[in-house]
Amino acid sequence: MSKEEMFKELSDAVVTCKKDVVIAAVEKAKGEGIPAPEIIEKGLAAGMNEVGVRFERGKLFLPHVMMAAGAMEEGVKLLEADMPKDAVSKKLGVIVNGTVEGDVHDIGKAIVSTMLQSAGFEVHDIGRDVPLQNFIDKIKETNADMVGLSALMTTTLQGQKDVIEMLKENGMRDDVKVMVGGAPATQAWADKIGADCYAENASEAVVKAKELLV
Amino acid sequence: MTTEYKLRMGDGKRIFMTKEQIVADLKEGMADAADLGSIPDLSADEIDKLVDIITMPSRMVGVEQGMEVPVTHDIGTIRIDGDQGNSGVGIPSSRLVGAMMHERAFGADTMELGHIDYSYKPAKPVIAQEMQTMEICQQNMIVPLLYGAMPNMGLYYTPDGPFENPGDLMKAFKIDEARQSMEHSAEHLTRDIVWIMQKMMASGSDGVNFDTIGAAGDGDMYASLHAIEALRKQFPDIYIEAGMAGELMLGMHGELEYDGTTLAGLWPHEQAPLVAKAGANVFGPVVNTNTSKSAAWNLGRAVTFIKAAVEASTLPCHVNMGMGVGGIPMLETPTIDAVSRASKAMVEIAGVDGI
């Protein structure tokens, strides 16, 4: 089997969303002598990307995304021992992600966190209805490169703007990229409040994060 | 200077577009629907007709003579009495008065009695009041009067119901437990809808309106289809309207099937045959409005989806037209310029049987 065929098999395995299928594919790829970083990047991550595409097109849904992410995680665990020492800790960037205060919506933000994590970012999901100061504290604590601010109601959109202002007040704005999202958020809103980017969905969040951080 | 026409964005904002821009947006919206649903594009003539409808100078437009269709209303009984929090106009009046105003003053062809909480589950503890109101309305009205509510399966999850919230379970990667919770909730929802409609049919209801099937995902649709099936079996002459919540059946469960078809991921033209199979009389397809796109984009997309649904459906299709659906902007009180244009397009191009 060629490397390309093996990568396709790994990718397809993730799209099945089944842990045992992914583990079998990873074991097979290891047996073929493919380096662990390539198995992850060109096989598993490519599969997760395809899951994201199918999710956005309404072909796969939340449980599938969760199962695929879980299956990929199991696959990656099998490869940890084979990863080059410097690669284990090498991440594309550190992102703090959460839903702003007053807003209890969680699922969309959780999908974005899962997709960012699967794409290679270190993600700190600090939950929903998060007091705005907690975003600032967590960014400081993790030395984050980006903050993701989710709001699902017009009444809580203001929280996104407030966090940007707080970043400025703390002298952190130049070091932290700001991504906003959620049903009422738009590119126009992002422009108005001075966010670095707006992502309409989880796949776009990954693309935008890569554009800004990689 | 190029002539510009008044349109709206999907959020209702007034915009001005040239004919070329309108055509481009119509085609882009159409292509989006065709791509997502794997359905045919509109013809060049149909695009031309859409352009004509959008660019008509009148503030309000109507269908051509002879193309009139039945119009029915959901929750209309409380649209008069309800305040803005309930999409109403806040004029103190009973539900009977609301229903009769729609019948005798507004020209509604069928009407629905709905409770202010407007889901089946909260109608259970007030069933005696609902039965009495239905009886009084039926004694005073001529048009078919249905009982209507939202299946709203979310009310069966914690903190509102007995089953653990699948959202919380999913976050903990307890996928199987989340699915079981949905399956249990679906059983209870089916049982509650059937029980409520047994009572309402005993009180003279002409039938039932399922308003926003699938709002809580595929489990919601699964429960609703089984309720339709059970009601058709118990009441062979019951009039059943099955209205959807959105264009795409969200797979919160992901694996539920009806009649061998996986419910997750179905578009309107794929939902229609299952609704017919379950035993409904009327299918109410929905296409959601994108607030970041123009009315032209949204209308091109909505008409493409609904035309395919009409062609695939063996039942009459009464398309959902209102705030945020059917190419109409997302406004609490949608503007007449947008509502009348979108409605005309649905009747004359998509070929819907009613609204």
TrEMBL record, chain A:
SMART domains, sorted: B12-binding_2 (SM01018)
SUPFAM superfamilies cross-referenced by the UniProt entry: Cobalamin (vitamin B12)-binding domain, Methionine synthase domain
Domain of life: Archaea
Domain (B12-binding) ranges: 92-214
Pathway assignment: One-carbon metabolism; methanogenesis from dimethylamine
Keywords: Cobalt, Metal-binding, Methanogenesis, Repeat
InterPro entries attached to this UniProt entry: Cbl-bd_cap, Cobalamin-bd, Cobalamin-bd_sf, Corrinoid_p, Dimeth_corrin_MtbC, Met_Synthase/Corrinoid, Meth_synthase_dom
Keyword Plastid annotated: no
GO BP annotations listed: homocysteine metabolic process; methanogenesis; tetrahydrofolate metabolic process
Family designation: Belongs to the methylamine corrinoid protein family.
Protein name: Dimethylamine corrinoid protein
Native source organism of the sequence: Methanolobus profundi
